[in-house]
């Protein structure tokens, strides 16, 4: 890395990002991002789709800075509703509900919000630094992950995350499988055959992730709380500024999860087709797995909010690496970002970084400005958000329900998705009654279709030769790790069983 | 006598023309009175979306009403197509769609509406530019070497943006015309496909998105699927120059309206677009989006759509695509 060159690029980027208009659009972007992040159901994709037409009238750099601000701003705001209301702001924040909401029930909602802001900032910073130093190298490295490697990673992810929820392992696994089954809905990529669409055209592209996540987590929570309206009494001392202060135990416990979450998020961000939601889920799963006290998870463990929040922010930033360095968007949202360039006649491609250096570096430096603005915006807002809890449920929840409807509708402009979110809300409520966990279902839904897509493609490319999974070094390594994990799992549960048996014998 | 009958005929004809023109002006005065929606049956951010927004901008200025773009993506464009076909046929709901909706999808799947009868063409606006590109690690320096290989061996894989997508059918058409074989690897869209071709995981791809990669030297372009060479890649021959005829050059994008839209409105829109295309600056703004501006008024366009659909229909019938 040429340091002189980097310094030149940084100053070029700053001179672009610090112009009055770009600062303004960066501010607008992150402000909107935070707000739509906080509002359940309306995520980055919906917000960017809504604002996309405006970019036609903006300078391309300003347009990109604003859209990017919405994208990473959403992750800052997204955990707020997860923590306070048990309703995720976006699917990538769904996992934060598991420990965030218990924290807020324990009167530690302010702490959780403050700490997730810190986690978001650190995760985001790691992502930006990687992008500044190694964007082309990382983009080329990410290309070495083909379908065989993706398949191996998805297997590892499913095995590692199979115990993501509390309670019965059997119920958890059943829900993973159910999620995979829901993931098969839609047109089969390899034959064009419609699967489980029942002739509904809107289902041919599969079930909408936002509708599924918002139904299972959001609408189900609202239905469940109908019975407890007015029975809630909030301790007013939990909504003061002082209540935001984390204990030194909180900070100590957070260091490891944030470091691992940032690394994991940075990694998944660079892989097209995965992204922040996958990163957040796996970061949570890994923390729970390596924790010495996994039983604390799901009951307000701070590690359970720090790892996923640092992971999804890091992934948000690094997902710009393939998008900008190769000109290949890894997700629908990234395609919109590049669309804002196409519309101005800038063709995204590998030459974007060299031919439009002020655009690339201006964008990267705006990430720093945006992330700092987000911290400045979010910390004072915590008090305000926590006060939301003082709004009576009978006023708050109808509004939340309306926003979920708007958010789900805006993704495809299709009213069918409103029916889907309603259906999944009912399903989610039923699952609560039966004590079936929702998080594994969402995990299966996200990972299952990816696993199928990549397995079948790996087989097509290798013309049916199963050996490719162990011939290619990266996939062989990942699969070996998976086997090791399964063996370790089996051994440790055997040990626990033997110990219990010994205790029973002794007793 | 001859001259008299001619005069009568001429009189009749001119009065018809005058009446038609009066009718035309009457409609022209009343349309468009309010906002016109151009539905794009794909998600925002793609090339068709960019073309629609550029066209909407031009039509807004030209016709003095607000033309807005609305995205209704899903099911390869069929959700938006179904929606527009059921909209009021008053000229206030239009659709900007691509060739696959009309000439491919009806032949590969059961569609709820027949796009050819449910919609009427308003004008053709652009041709897509596609390029056959291979990973640079492959030894084929030109199209002849490549053809020689695929005619002999079936060990190469090609990527497409999905079953029944234009690139998929174009590639199969190409293979059957040249008598070559390659294995099809479908992807959920052009971008993930491009990703694996860049990585060398898949060998070949015929698409628009490969063009900037070839310009950057990350892929090697062998032949242009189009009637003209690409401005930025003047050394790559077209199909015809490479001696390959009978292969459909590429895809098109056009403006459509619900089937019963008054022909006066269709003609008025078609004329307005024709005038827009006389403006060099407007043409340049379309070219910048990565497509070749190409205008056809509604009647000519209708004919070319029908022959396109027939050609693809006959070809697809020979393919083994599941319904």
Helical run tally of chain A:
21
Low-confidence stretches of chain A: none
Number of strands of chain A: 2
Number of strands of chain B: 11
Organism (chain B): Pelagibacterium luteolum
Keywords (chain B): Receptor, Signal
Protein name (chain B): Tripartite-type tricarboxylate transporter, receptor component TctC
Family (chain B): Belongs to the UPF0065 (bug) family.
Provide an overview of this structure.
Chain B: Residues 1-28 form the signal peptide. Chain B: InterPro entries: BUG, Bug_dom1. Chain B: Belongs to the UPF0065 (bug) family. The complex is a heterodimer of chains A (507) and B (323). Chain A has helices at 3-17, 20-38, 44-55, 60-85, 97-105, 109-143, 147-161, 169-183, 209-226, 248-270, 276-290, 303-318, 320-325, 332-342, 352-355, 357-387, 393-412, 416-433, 439-461, 468-471, 473-506; strands at 186-187, 194-195. Chain A is mostly helical. Chain A has a two-stranded antiparallel ribbon with strand order 1-2. In chain A, 56% of the residues are buried. The mean pLDDT of chain A is 88. In chain B, helix 2 (47-63) crosses helix 10. The model of chain B is unreliable at 1-6 and 8-28 (pLDDT under 50). Chain B is globular, with a radius of gyration of 22 Å. Chain B folds into 2 domains: 31-127 and 251-318, Bordetella uptake gene, domain 1 (D-Maltodextrin-Binding Protein, domain 2, 3-Layer(aba) Sandwich), CATH 3.40.190; 130-225, 3-Layer(aba) Sandwich (D-Maltodextrin-Binding Protein, domain 2). Chain B has helices spanning 2-30, 47-63, 78-85, 99-108, 115-118, 143-152, 166-178, 190-198, 210-215, 263-278, 280-287, 298-318, and strands at residues 36-40, 67-71, 93-98, 119-128, 130-134, 157-160, 183-186, 204-207, 220-225, 252-258, 291-297.
């Amino acid at each position: 890395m040429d340091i002189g060159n980097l310094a030149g690029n940084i100053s070029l980027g700053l001179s672009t990002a610090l112009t009055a208009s770009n600062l303004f659009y960066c501010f607008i972007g992150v402000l909107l991002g935070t707000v739509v992040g906080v509002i359940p159901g309306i995520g980055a994709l919906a917000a960017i789709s809504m604002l996309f037409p405006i970019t036609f009238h903006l300078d391309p750099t300003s347009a990109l800075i604003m859209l990017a601000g919405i994208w990473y701003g959403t992750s800052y705001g997204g955990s707020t509703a997860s923590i306070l209301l048990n309703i995720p702001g976006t699917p990538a924040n769904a996992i934060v509900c598991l420990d965030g909401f218990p924290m807020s029930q324990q009167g530690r909602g302010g702490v959780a919000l403050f700490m997730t802001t810190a986690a978001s900032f650190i995760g985001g910073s790691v992502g930006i630094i990687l992008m500044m130093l190694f964007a082309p190298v990382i983009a080329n490295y990410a290309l070495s992950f083909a379908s065989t490697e993706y398949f191996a990673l998805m297997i590892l992810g499913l095995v590692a995350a199979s115990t993501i929820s509390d309670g019965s392992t059997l119920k958890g696994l059943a829900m993973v499988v159910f999620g995979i089954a829901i993931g098969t809905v839609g047109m089969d990529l390899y034959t064009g055959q419609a699967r489980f669409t029942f002739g509904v055209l809107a289902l041919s592209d599969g079930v909408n992730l936002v509708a599924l996540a918002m139904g299972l987590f959001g609408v189900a929570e609202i239905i469940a709380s109908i019975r407890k309206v007015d029975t809630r009494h909030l301790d007013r001392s939990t909504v003061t500024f002082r209540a935001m202060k984390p204990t030194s135990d909180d900070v100590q416990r957070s260091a490891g999860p944030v470091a691992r979450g940032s690394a994991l998020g940075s990694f998944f961000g660079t892989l097209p087709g995965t992204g922040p939601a996958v990163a957040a889920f796996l970061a949570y799963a890994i923390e729970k797995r390596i924790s010495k006290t996994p039983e604390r998870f799901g009951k307000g463990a701070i590690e359970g909010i720090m790892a996923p929040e640092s992971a999804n922010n890091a992934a948000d930033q690094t997902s710009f690496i393939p998008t900008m360095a190769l000109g290949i968007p890894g997700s629908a949202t990234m395609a919109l970002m590049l669309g804002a360039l196409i519309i101005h006649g800038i063709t995204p491609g590998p030459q974007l970084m060299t031919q439009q250096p002020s655009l690339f570096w201006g964008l990267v430096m705006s990430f720093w400005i945006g992330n700092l603005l987000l911290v400045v915006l979010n910390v004072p807002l915590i008090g305000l958000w926590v006060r939301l809890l003082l709004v009576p449920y009978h006023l708050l929840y109808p509004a939340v329900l309306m926003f979920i409807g708007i958010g789900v509708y805006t993704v495809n402009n299709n009213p069918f998705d409103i029916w889907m979110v309603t259906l999944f809300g009912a399903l989610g409520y039923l699952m609560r009654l039966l004590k079936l966990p929702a998080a594994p279902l969402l995990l299966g839904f996200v990972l299952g279709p990816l696993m199928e897509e990549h397995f079948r493609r790996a087989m097509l490319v290798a013309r049916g030769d199963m050996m490719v999974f162990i011939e290619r070094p990266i996939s062989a390594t990942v699969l070996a790790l998976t086997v090791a994990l399964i063996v370790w799992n089996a051994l440790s549960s055997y040990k626990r069983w033997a110990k219990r048996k010994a205790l029973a014998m002794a007793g | 006598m001859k001259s008299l009958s001619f005069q009568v005929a001429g009189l009749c004809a001119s009065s018809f023309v005058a009446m038609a023109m009066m009718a035309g002006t009457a409609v022209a005065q009343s349309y468009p009175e309010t906002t016109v929606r151009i539905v794009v049956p794909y998600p925002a951010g793609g090339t068709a979306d960019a073309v629609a927004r550029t066209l909407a901008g031009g039509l807004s200025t030209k016709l003095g009403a607000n033309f807005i773009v609305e995205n209704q993506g899903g099911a390869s464009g069929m959700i938006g197509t179904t929606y527009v076909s059921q909209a009021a046929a008053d000229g206030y709901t239009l659709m900007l769609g691509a060739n696959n909706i009309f000439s491919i999808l009806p032949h590969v799947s059961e569609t709820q509406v027949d796009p050819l009868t449910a919609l009427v063409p308003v004008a053709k606006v652009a041709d897509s530019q596609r390029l056959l590109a291979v990973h640079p690690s492959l030894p084929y320096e030109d199209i002849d070497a490549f053809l020689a290989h695929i005619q002999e061996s079936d060990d190469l894989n090609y990527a497409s943006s999905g079953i029944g997508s234009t690139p998929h059918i174009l590639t199969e058409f190409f293979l059957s015309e040249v008598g070559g074989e390659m294995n099809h690897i479908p992807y959920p869209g052009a971008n993930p496909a491009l990703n694996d071709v860049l990585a060398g995981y898949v060998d070949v791809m015929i698409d628009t998105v490969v063009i900037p990669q070839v310009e950057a030297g990350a892929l090697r372009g062998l032949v242009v699927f189009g009637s003209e060479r690409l401005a930025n890649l003047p050394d790559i021959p077209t199909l015809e120059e490479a001696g390959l005829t009978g292969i459909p050059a590429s895809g098109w994008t056009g403006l459509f309206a619900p089937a019963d839209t008054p022909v006066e409105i269709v003609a008025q829109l078609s004329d307005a677009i024709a005038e827009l295309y006389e403006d060099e600056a407007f043409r340049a703004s379309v070219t910048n989006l990565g497509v070749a501006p190409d205008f056809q008024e509604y009647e000519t366009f209708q004919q070319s759509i029908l022959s396109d659909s027939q050609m693809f229909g006959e070809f697809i019938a020979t393919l083994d695509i599941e319904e």
